[in-house]
Amino acid sequence: MKAVKVLTVLLLLTATAVSCSNGPVEYRKTKPLMDTIVTITVVSESDRKADEAIESAFSVISRFSDKIDFFKHTSELSAVNRNAGIAAVTVSPETLGVIERALYIAKISGGAFDPTIGPEIRMWDFAKKVRPSDEEIRKNLPLVNYRDIVVDRSRSTVFLRKRGMLMDLGGIAKGYAADLALADLKKEGIAAGIVAAAGDIRAFGLKPGGEAWRVGIMNPRQKSKADELIATARLSNKAVSTSGDYERYFIENGRRYHHILDPKTGYPAAGCRSVTVISDDGIFADGFTTAVFVLGPEKGMRLVRDCGADALIIDRDGGVHTTPGLKKMVAFENGH
Ligand code: ADP
Ligand code: MG
User: Fold this and answer.
1) CATH superfamily placement of domain 72-160
2) How many CB atoms are located within 10 Å of the residue 305 CB?
3) pLDDT tens-digit profile of 34-83?
4) Residue 279 main-chain phi, psi, to 5 deg
5) What is the Rg, in whole angstroms, of the alpha carbon atoms belonging to the chain?
6) Are 336 and 230 in contact (CB under 8 A)?
7) Is the CB of 294 under 6 A from ligand 1?
8) Which of 28, 64, 108, 225 is least enclosed, having the fewest CB within 10 Å?
């Protein structure tokens, strides 16, 4: 069991449910899922309805997670990886859906996002400060290439062309889980809420008082021990994701090694400290944070703008880059 990762953003929720004189209130529950903490908040007039809806959404995330869990022997993803270079594997619509979207993000990012990063990422252990040798990294690079993923939509199959290839959906899965959970909440009759899978958050509707949901974006270099924010986003019907080099990392000889790898080199991407993307869907917000982190601020911003999303990038030197649209949704803390 891996350690629960540090939250990249803070959900800014009131400590107790907010009531508007017998009107709807906020209900919130938290559960460890997908190697992290998932928090679901819904607005409802009935605690029973709220509880049932939240539990139903947790089950949706849990079932999805079981299918795409890299470490679970029985997952569909493990079956695809075991059959790399051997055979195409039939997968469920959810797994096919996330892989197709991962491929789309890989294509439009020119391979900066690459779900076949598995053979490289598996050699690192950020908690134990283990890093592979230059030689090991170089040897595995030919196995990292999203073009060697073959998806047959009509048969619902996925095939990895080369033996030794490993698909890892960690850069996109939590955003998609938030999307699936949100769709389920709506199906359960919930009109407003927010799903937060650590740093991958999707909000819909408004809080009981009619305000937008507030999501805090952390400063990637904390000055004090407290969770210091760099900015706060106000959102309704949007997804926000943050990826940073401060989440899973270690420092050796003054150099920071972290969990977002450049698929071209196999080494941690060096252009950014953190990337926040605001988009309509969780899966794209999540996938783009990883892609933009690898592309760096200039190319990353271009990609985000071309796709009609918004971003806040803190570059390697602490410089802040934003899309024009972001300023309408995000308020910066004093001093930033
Ligand atoms: P987090 O999981 O912390 O929210 P990301 O969304 O950026 O952060 O995902 C990082 C994870 O994605 C890594 O732990 C790894 O599993 C995977 N990954 C790392 N580099 C890449 C990459 N270039 N393309 C696709 N996935 C990646
Ligand atoms: Mg991501």
Assistant:
1) ApbE-like superfamily (1.10.3980.10)
2) 14
3) 999 999 999 999 999 999 999 999 999 999 999 999 999 999 999 999 99
4) -145, 175
5) 20
6) yes
7) yes
8) 225
Measured in whole angstroms, the distance separating CA 117 from the mean position of its chain's CA atoms is 15
Q: Per residue in 235-280, pLDDT tens?
A: 999 999 999 998 899 999 999 999 999 999 999 999 999 999 999 9
pLDDT (0 to 100) of residue 227: 78
pLDDT tens digit string along 189-217? 999 999 999 999 999 999 999 999 999 99
Strand 213-218 versus strand 9-11 pairing type: antiparallel
Which ligand is nearest to the Cα of residue 112, counting in written order? 1
CA of 46 to the centre of ligand 2 (A): 34
Is residue 6 pLDDT above 90, yes or no?
no
Q: Please report the pLDDT score of residue 247 as a whole number.
A: 87
| Cβ atoms of residues 34 and 173 within 8 Å | yes
Q: Which atom of ligand 1 is nearest to the CA of 275?
A: 7
Contact by Cβ (8 Å): 290, 172 = yes
**CB count in 10 Å sphere of residue 321:** 19
Q: To 5 degrees, how large is the angle CA 273–CA 41–CA 289?
A: 20
DSSP element (H, E) containing 200: strand 200-204
In terms of Cβ atoms closer than 10 Å to its own Cβ (0-12, 13-18, 19+), residue 156 is middle
Give 9 or 235, the one with higher predicted confidence: 235
Rounded Cα–Cα distance for residues 173 and 61 (Å): 10
Closest CA to 75 of 63, 59, 88, 86: 63
Counting every residue written for the chain, the total comes to 336
Beta bridge partners of 41: 28, 194
Q: Which two tokens stand for residue 306?
A: 């071309």
Residue 52 carries which DSSP code? Answer: H
Give the atom of ligand 1 at the shortest distance from the alpha carbon of 293.
Answer: 7
Residue 96 token pair = 């096919």
pLDDT value for 326: 94
* Closest C-alpha to ligand 1, atom 3: 243
